[in-house]
Design a protein that fits this description.
Layout: H1 2-38, E1 41-51, E2 67-68, E3 82-91, E4 96-103, E5 108-113, E6 120-124, E7 142-147, E8 152-159, E9 173-177, H2 178-213, H3 216-236, H4 238-243, H5 253-276, H6 278-281, H7 283-302, H8 309-336, H9 342-363, H10 375-442, H11 445-448, H12 451-465, H13 470-489, E10 496-497, H14 498-515, E11 520-525, H15 528-531, E12 534-535, H16 539-550, E13 559-566, E14 569-575, H17 588-601, E15 606-609, E16 613-619
Parallel strand pairs: 11-13
Antiparallel strand pairs: 1-2, 1-3, 3-8, 4-7, 4-9, 5-6, 5-8, 10-12, 13-14, 14-16, 15-16
Helix pairs in contact: 2-3, 2-10, 3-5, 3-10, 5-7, 5-8, 7-8, 8-9, 9-10, 10-12, 13-14
């Protein structure tokens, strides 16, 4: 019972506070209305005159006939069409010298009055530099005016332009004061600053996630938020206000608006691609959206070459309205198809779609009940950005888990590959060792001096590549086996044809190029008859191995081997680039070759050395 009484007392207190607050608001409203009534100013006797050639001066207007504004039929004004408007500014109270006259939508406005030496009052206009405007404020066409009880007559010269963002289709003149102007500005300004600060924090957050995970979806979403920040400031006129202090900037306002609008929608659609995984869930629709993106980019680029840019801007706005319809379509079917994150995506887009539709309808000339206001767009962007950040946070968590699983799988595969590589190495070493032992046991004394040295170098290379590239290691083993098949196949032969020796040499050269990539060249200049001559097995291999042993072999100083015949000798020549520290050796290779030729042909091997090259001449042996 006491709790119930206490609750009732609290309710009564709340009701009393509300009543006091409402009373204060009502009294304030009454006071404001009374103050406005005492100082109310208004425009009357509004009439217009169309200046066909644009040469009329204010002093000539006394002799022309002005038509009532009610006779104005209303149409889209063309490029540089000029109208003169006459009106009287009256005050119901004292003289109002702080009024601001606003001319909505006109590119160039010049205001004059009569009854004084200098009739010029001031100038303004959307495409006029700020430094030339009477009262520059957020790209609004404002000129200071004076209202008296008897009325002050003004003549306004209005010029249209198709280089502006929107068409001018009416002669609208409004009155305001600096106080009212700044009150309206502050109303949207604080909301805009809060929203842009929030978007900036989300943009930094998403960029941080992008650098962590390297997923492009986070990057595109952060770019979209950056463009949203720019759009908020641009719609308020603050960007244009700053940039318009440059005298030549106003003529590019429409061009900039077309680029930013197209860029924002392109980035927005690409972001949606990533959020809803279009390649999986909306594959057919993606083709249509891609065409729309290309049209966006083409329209924005064409604005550079079209002087009447209002048509391009209006076309882009119409495409943006179509894009919003497309986003609504994707939002609806994302839920019906149960796409991941579809619920949050839908909630994020509903206020954004409503705000965007309102903004676009206003920009393309539709009369709306709330007039020009960015609050719907700002709140829609705020809700959308917040929920987008939530979606990307969840996506980030999912990607991190997926990456962890991938890393675990990679580690397991690496461990398995290391075990297999170790077994492969052991088996290869055993097989090559057995092959070596078998070959050594079957060779003659002179031939036994060749094989171990070659095998040692081959196994050294194989040890290096077996861990890095198993496919190359397998190819290496295959070519190595070809060489050894040649060795074993000719173990009982004292000589082979030069053609057979060269066939084996190709496999051997492959092994050499694995050891020294981009550092070995071989040139052969032999006739078919010479290829039928005889040589001891593996003699060419030994000479090439000897050249590698004593010279630097790298990409900067490649080893060049040339095979040619002269005076019944087969010369094997190599360029000289000797090692700084001479290789240790017993000259077994050259001595082996000399001994075999003495036994085989009773001929001597020629060895020649110069500053530039080293060459060995092998006697050509023919079996007649």
């Amino acid at each position: 019972m006491q709790a119930g009484l206490h609750m009732s007392a609290r309710n009564r207190l709340i009701i009393r506070l509300c009543a006091v607050l409402l009373t204060c608001l009502l009294l304030g409203s009454i006071s404001a209305v009374a103050e406005a009534s005492r100082h109310f100013s208004h425009i009357q006797d509004l009439s217009f005159y169309r200046d066909l050639d644009g040469t009329m001066q204010v002093n000539d207007l006394q002799h022309v006939s002005f038509s009532p504004i009610s006779d104005f039929d209303g149409h889209h004004f063309g490029h540089h069409e000029v109208y003169w408007v006459r009106f009287e500014l009256h005050s119901n109270g004292p003289v109002m010298d702080s009024l601001l006259i606003e001319f909505f939508g006109w590119a160039d406005v010049r205001l004059y009055t009569v009854g004084r030496d200098d009739p010029f009052v001031g100038q303004s206009g959307y495409l006029m530099p700020y430094v030339a405007r009477d009262f520059p404020f957020l790209n609004r066409s404002l000129i200071r005016g004076l209202a008296t009880s008897d009325g002050t007559t003004y003549y306004a010269r209005l010029t249209a332009s198709l280089n502006h963002v929107t068409f001018v289709d009416a002669i609208n003149i409004g009155l305001t004061t600096e106080l009212a102007l700044y009150e309206q500005y502050r109303k949207d300004h604080y909301l805009r600053v809060f929203n842009n600060g929030f978007l900036l924090c989300l943009m930094v957050f998403l960029l941080f996630l992008f650098f962590l995970i390297k997923d492009l979806s986070f990057f595109f979403c952060s770019i979209y938020m950056a463009l949203s920040i720019y759009t908020n400031y641009n719609n308020s006129g603050e960007i244009v206000e700053v940039m318009s202090f440059f005298e030549s900037f106003p003529q590019y306002i429409a061009l900039l608006d077309a680029w930013v609008s197209a860029g924002t929608m392109v980035v927005a659609v690409v972001t949606i691609y990533y959020v809803l995984d279009f390649d999986t869930n909306f594959l057919k629709e993606k083709k249509v959206f891609n065409i729309m993106l290309y049209i966006f980019l083409a329209a924005a680029l064409s604005a550079v070459f079209i002087t009447q840019r209002v048509y391009v801007v209006q076309f882009i706005y119409a495409l943006m309205l179509l894009s919003v319809i497309g986003i609504f379509y994707i939002t609806y079917f994302a839920i019906s198809r149960k796409v991941k994150y579809s619920l949050m995506f839908s909630i994020a887009n509903v206020p954004f779609i409503l705000g965007a539709v309102y903004y676009l309808l206003y920009e393309i000339g539709v009369t709306l009940p709330f007039g020009q206001t960015d609050q719907f767009m700002i709140m829609g962007t705020f809700v959308q950005s917040f929920l987008f950040a939530m979606i990307f946070s969840l996506k980030f968590s999912t990607l991190v888990k997926q990456n962890d699983e991938k890393q675990k799988q990679i580690i397991l595969k690496l461990q398995e590959s290391q075990v297999l590589s170790r077994k492969w190495k052991e088996a290869t070493v055993k097989a090559e060792t057995l092959e070596k032992e078998k070959a050594i046991s079957q060779y003659e004394v002179l031939k036994n001096q060749v094989s171990p040295h070659f095998l040692f170098n081959s196994l050294s290379v194989l040890t290096q590549i077996v861990y890095d590239n198993q496919e190359k290691a397998a190819t290496f083993i295959h070519e190595l086996a070809s060489v050894y098949r040649y060795i074993l196949g000719n173990r009982n032969r004292n000589s082979v044809s030069l053609q057979e020796e060269l066939d084996c040499l190709h496999s051997y050269i492959f092994l050499i190029k694995i050891r020294f990539p981009d550092a070995f060249e071989l040139q052969i200049s032999l006739t078919d008859e010479e290829l039928q001559s005889l040589v001891p097995p593996l003699v060419l291999q030994m000479l090439i191995e000897n050249a590698i042993k004593h010279n630097v072999v790298d990409a900067e100083s490649p080893l060049k081997i040339t095979l040619y015949t002269k005076d019944e000798l087969l010369f094997v020549r190599n360029n000289l680039n000797l090692r700084s520290q001479p290789a240790l050796g017993t000259k077994v290779g050259i001595n082996n070759i000399k001994s075999r030729y003495r036994v085989l042909a009773e001929k001597e091997v020629l060895v020649q050395t110069s500053i530039e090259y080293f060459e060995v001449g092998l006697p050509l042996i023919y079996d007649h």
